[in-house]
């Protein structure tokens, strides 16, 4: 009895300490591994912050967009993977206001991203999902959208229309804060 | 027969599992639990096993690539013999699984099974429900068609509304700046590896706890659960009057599971697989995306929430719901189990059922969406045009050409976004009609910029004819006095 009383705590404590050391080692290894794993998982965010996803893209010659009209245009997203297929083709609405001024709207409804359709007869964009509607200048007309349509920056060079695009248009994306959304009172 | 027994003995000498399996199978359960009300948990497990098997079979062919997924689904449907049947089993199995998990949850709630000592079993069950719904949503994404593509758009738009980290959340969810190959790959990983792995682990713990704690006894009105005495009472109930689970109770589980499998197979054969719908090409915008059946209620909610309250409700609402479900066994861990003595519990279930049912019904009809082609495909009924003046008919033309019909119905045809206009002249005077058309309001766009004065005059003249014969249209009596009687313009009546 006395022998165990003397030796057991000493032996226990030594083994317990070794076990704790082993756990500490694994904890450190876990942390060391966690850093690259988290970095890997965050790569879509990091890439966007470092290089940016946006670039200037041509939507084609100005002759495709007659003055006073709103036309559908498509572009190939600048950041693509070879297996993206047709999903990398993005549509947008181009409004030629007066031959000089343009508005380029994202296809995504400002409510929850469904594709809005242009109705030239009533000069409205209508969304098929939850019933949002917008005036021809992109401002909100009715329905659940909290704001007007998202707008791309544009420029005209050599008779061609360029927009700055590359990210899906959502609240918080660059298009959400681009100029061009005028609020009009109903 | 002898050979089988010898092989069995040989295995058991080494595995040493026979005794514990026998003990588990024959563990006593309360006599009344050998009931048809207690079959839903095992049926949910049966569905899950079916989903695993059919899921593996589909993965033999399916290509989780944005460029190829849709084509591989077409091959599954049409190119591989009985591929359509496996897809049907997986799709209908998913619907059945969600439905049975919900029924199981309602039964467990109404029978008070979440009370002491089964609080943790209930909480794990809540996570199992969430994972089942996650599987249903991610599965819909893997059916990579237009609905899946724009459904992802809705998911990304909701994620983008998270304060501060919204834009990051979108890119993490999509795996990049847009919905594309990376998005499908990560939803594939979540649907095929992550959630199923968690599901298997959680189902295991859930089952183990049912075995360790014993199945909930049949609730008797007046038999109160108390922490101090329950365990002894339950022990007496099972050991004095209990019956062995096998074969007294299990045969009903076996029969019901078989019936469910047969029903899933029948749906797969008779109704076929789900989709895929149109190609996931974002430049095809002639589409009206719609979620699968079990998310239709959410689709309705999203169209009814007022813009100002939408973001907080979308982001906080689910969290409140989940926390409430998790806290339930701590708020009501003791007391009456029988639903006959728990009116609030019964009313809560009824309220939620009516709410989800109504919202789902609305989601099937989407009255909030304009009927996009009503203006070109639905003519104005002829009785609304007969005997009208040229101006009024010109107004009917404006009504069609300016797409009023997309939101307003005539004779129950057309959009339901705005009010039906069959009797609008009874509600609004000429002045009010002009104001409403030009300025909009009350969720109607303003048409002032899109209508010439002549068009507005014609349109309002047409709208003024929309009242039942015998009912005179609304008029402003003050105008009669001030302007001398004939101020309301033409006052034609319906034939």
Structure description:
The complex is a heterodimer of chains A (186) and B (495). With 186 residues, chain A is an alpha+beta fold. Chain A folds into two domains: 2-41; 53-177, Rieske Iron-sulfur Protein, CATH 2.102.10. Chain A contains two helices and eleven strands. In chain A, a hairpin with a 5-residue loop joins strand 3 and strand 4. The longest helix of chain A is centred in the N-terminal third of the chain and has 40 residues, at 2-41. Mean pLDDT of chain A is 85; it is low at 180-186. Chain B has 495 residues and is mainly alpha-helical. Chain B folds into two domains: 2-365, Cytochrome Bc1 Complex, Chain C; 374-483, Cytochrome Bc1 Complex, Chain D, domain 2, CATH 1.10.760. Chain B is built from 20 helices and four strands. Chain B has helices spanning 2-15, 18-25, 40-59, 69-79, 83-110, 119-142, 146-159, 166-174, 181-213, 230-241, 245-271, 296-304, 307-331, 343-365, 374-377, 390-401, 424-427, 430-439, 453-463, 477-483; strands at residues 28-29, 224-225, 243-244, 335-336. In chain B, the strands form two sheets. A two-stranded antiparallel sheet of chain B has the order 1-3. Classes of the chains: A alpha+beta (186), B mainly alpha (495). At the A-B interface, helix 2 and strand 3 of A face helix 7, helix 8, helix 12 and helix 13 of B.
């Amino acid at each position: 009895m006395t022998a165990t009383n003397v030796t057991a705590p000493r032996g226990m404590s030594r083994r317990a300490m070794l076990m704790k050391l082993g756990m500490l080692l694994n904890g450190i290894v876990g942390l060391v591994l966690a850093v690259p794993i988290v970095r890997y998982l965050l790569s879509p965010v990091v890439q966007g912050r470092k290089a940016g996803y946006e670039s200037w893209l041509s939507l084609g010659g100005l002759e495709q967009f007659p003055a006073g009209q709103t036309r559908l245009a498509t572009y190939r997203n600048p950041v693509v993977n070879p297996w993206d297929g047709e999903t990398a083709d993005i549509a947008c609405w181009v409004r030629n206001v007066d031959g000089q001024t343009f508005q380029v709207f994202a296809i995504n409804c400002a409510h929850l991203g469904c594709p809005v359709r242009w109705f030239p007869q009533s000069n409205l964009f209508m969304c098929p999902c939850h019933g949002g509607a917008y005036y021809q200048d992109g401002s909100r007309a009715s329905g659940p959208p909290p704001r007007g349509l998202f707008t791309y920056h544009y420029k005209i060079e050599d008779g061609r229309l360029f927009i700055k695009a590359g990210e899906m248009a959502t609240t918080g994306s660059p298009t959400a804060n681009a100029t061009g959304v005028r609020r009009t009172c109903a | 027969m002898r050979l089988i027994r010898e092989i069995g003995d040989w295995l058991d000498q080494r595995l040493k599992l026979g005794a514990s399996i026998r003990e588990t199978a024959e563990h006593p359960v309360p006599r009344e639990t050998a009931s048809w009300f207690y079959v839903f948990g095992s049926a949910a497990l049966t569905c899950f096993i079916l989903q695993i098997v059919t899921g593996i079979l589909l993965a033999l062919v399916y290509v989780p690539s944005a460029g190829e997924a849709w084509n591989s689904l077409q091959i599954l449907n049409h190119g591989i013999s009985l591929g359509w049947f496996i897809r049907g089993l997986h799709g209908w199995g998913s619907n059945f699984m969600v439905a049975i998990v919900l029924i199981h949850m309602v039964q467990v709630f109404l029978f008070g099974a979440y009370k002491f000592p089964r609080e943790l079993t209930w909480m794990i069950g809540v996570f199992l429900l969430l994972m089942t719904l996650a599987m249903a949503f991610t599965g819909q994404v893997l059916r990579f068609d237009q609905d899946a593509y724009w459904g992802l758009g809705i998911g990304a738009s909701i994620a983008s509304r998270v304060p501060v980290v919204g834009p990051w959340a979108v890119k993490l969810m999509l795996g990049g700046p847009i919905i594309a190959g990376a998005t499908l790959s990560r939803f594939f990983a979540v649907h095929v590896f992550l959630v199923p792995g968690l599901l298997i682990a959680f189902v295991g713990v859930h089952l183990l706890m049912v075995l360790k704690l014993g199945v909930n006894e049949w609730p008797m009105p007046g038999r109160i659960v108390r922490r101090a005495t329950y365990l002894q009472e339950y022990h007496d109930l099972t050991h004095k009057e209990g019956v062995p689970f096998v074969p007294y109770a299990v045969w009903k589980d076996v029969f019901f599971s078989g019936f469910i499998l047969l029903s899933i197979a029948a749906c797969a054969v008779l109704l076929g697989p789900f989709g895929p719908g149109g190609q996931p090409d974002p430049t095809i915008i002639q589409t009206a995306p719609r979620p699968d059946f079990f998310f239709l209620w959410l689709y309705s909610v999203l169209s009814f929430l007022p813009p100002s309250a939408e973001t907080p409700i979308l982001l906080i609402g689910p969290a409140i719901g989940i926390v409430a479900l998790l806290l339930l066994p701590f708020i009501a861990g003791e007391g009456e189990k029988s639903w006959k003595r728990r009116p609030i519990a019964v009313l809560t279930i009824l309220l939620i059922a009516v709410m989800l049912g109504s919202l789902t019904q609305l989601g099937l009809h989407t009255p909030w969406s304009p009927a996009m082609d009503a203006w070109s495909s639905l003519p104005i009924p002829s009785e609304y045009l007969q005997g009208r003046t040229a101006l009024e008919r010109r107004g009917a033309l404006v009504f069609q050409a300016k797409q009023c019909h997309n939101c307003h119905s005539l004779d129950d045809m057309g959009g339901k976004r705005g009010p039906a206009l069959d009797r609008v002249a009874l509600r609004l005077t000429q002045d009010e009609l002009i104001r409403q058309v030009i300025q909009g309001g009350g969720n109607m766009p303003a048409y002032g910029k899109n209508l010439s004065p002549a068009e507005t005059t014609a349109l309002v003249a047409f709208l003024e004819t929309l009242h039942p014969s015998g009912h005179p249209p609304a008029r402003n009596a003050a105008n009669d006095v001030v302007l001398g009687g004939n101020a309301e313009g033409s006052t034609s009546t319906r034939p």
